User: Fold this.
Amino acid sequence: MASVIVGIDHGFNYIKTAHRNFLAGVTMTEYEPPLNTRVLEYKEKWYTIGATRLPFQPNKTLNDNYYILTLAALSEELRTRKLNNATVCIAAGLPLKRLGTEKQAFIKYLQKHKEVTWKYEGESFHAKIVDVAVFPQGYAAVLPQISKFPSTFLLADLGGGTLNLTLINDQIPNMDKTWTLNLGCINCIEMVQEELQTRFGQAIEEDQIRNYMMGKSPMLPTKYKEVIEKGLSSYAQSTVAKITELGFNRETLPIVWCGGGAIFMEFWGGLRDMNLYIEDTCATAKGYELMYDLLKK
Assistant:
């Protein structure tokens, strides 16, 4: 049986592995859906993955949703590695500020079944979960290339649910200057949807706004585009303003943006000098695998 390390970035908006990403959505049925695309079968129930995003859930261990999403992530990643049966070490993460209080509960949650069998898109998988390690998210994304960054910089990890800020000095996170703020991209989407509802009496599909956030222009009437563009720009600027409120000098302190919102900030934040962007949305999951490998050496 092959032994592998699988990094999983359990985002509120997207689930990412080193090679795959999909919307953090789970819809359970007690009958087999007519199509098996992104359908996971586990314990005589069927789960459609990624069709509709889950509501924001700060504590991911409260129910089985993120466990099912973990199995889906393992399916996607094991398939990429041409494996159906493997001994797995899961490398995951939490915001640095919450790592001390939530780490053990998250490890217990991810390893609640030492051996697990399921089907994904009709294909059988079996995994023996021999270890789970939890690392600081955000920092994992920059670690592989941290030597290329300035000696002092602000790490800004913008995800679906939160904005995690950490001052990095000589490659070491400063625990006295780290924050987890509820300023994620989901908040931005909801704000835009509310404005569209107010202006036009109806919202649009979330995917259309998400695409706009990433710099893609969906097919929409001009009046809708104008409202969306104004909302995205406003939210990005308020995110930058929060950094200033915390006492950081944006004229002199480099900011390294990572997470799913890095591209959003690059496109809509109006930031140029002193800002660097990690555009690879799978960077954090890759970083988890590197950190696990370094930990076990």
User: Anything to note?
Assistant: Residues 64 and 109 are 9 Å apart (CA to CA). The chain has two domains: 2-136, 146-278. The two ends are 21 Å apart (CA to CA).
